[in-house]
Amino acid sequence: MTRRRQIYEGKAKILYEGPEPGTLIQYFKDDATAFNAQKKGIINGKGVINNRISEHVFTLLAGIGIPTHFIKRLNMREQLVRQVEIVPIEVVVRNVVAGSLSKRLGIEEGTPLGRTILEYYYKDDALGDPMITDEHIACFGWASQEEMHEISDMAIRINDFMSGLFAAIGIRLVDFKLEFGRVWDNDYPRIILADEISPDGCRLWDMTSGEKLDKDRFRRDLGGEVEAYQEVARRLGLLPEEAEHEVLDLETHRKKRGK
Ligand code: UDP
Does ligand 1 lie within 6 Å of residue 12's CB atom? Predict the structure, then answer.
């Protein structure tokens, strides 16, 4: 296979040039980082699971009319996506107090929120993704006011849909992070959902046991990361119980054959 041009390497994904102009290939790595990349590790098989989970969620979201960058999954670790101009804002949606919100305001983790909270962070690793408000976004021109309306409307719709999706499989959607991109249709900018939706960027708690089924297992050294991610995929119907090991075994097998 000819070597593809790498466009960008992030903490958990690599972007390659796509087969047609305006497309990219998004490759899911097993690398895990936390605390602004101060903690690094590998979660074997994570990329394969996140590729599948993200494909599933993006496809369902497209089904309810959310425009996304996802085109199709290509193989176990790669998906074809639309190239976007990324909006440099991480949108965090919260339903239950956890993580940085708990620390910042001294409210106990697990406290349900009376209303959904949207937070914005400026995407800048060197600055440690500082929290920002609409005022900063408008002042520095990171997105227009109309775009921020679209983004916040979509974030709320995505939250409503995903809360139901996970509740149906016994999982509480505590919080999650979204990223959006801009595409140009006939010189007219349009906002679409980009990046990924997976247990790397969501807090997912088992509704009965309270067990964490997300990246907090890695952040907090709880162990069992792959098993937790697999459990989410299995409950979503993406890994039939008997096949779940085979998927990863198949990949190991392919690697051994050098393919
Ligand atoms: N999140 C993320 N990437 C980030 C920061 C946060 O995906 O760079 C997700 C995180 O997984 C959680 C939610 O956004 O589901 C809220 O994270 P929080 O602000 O509590 O920060 P953390 O405790 O992860 O530092």
Answer: no
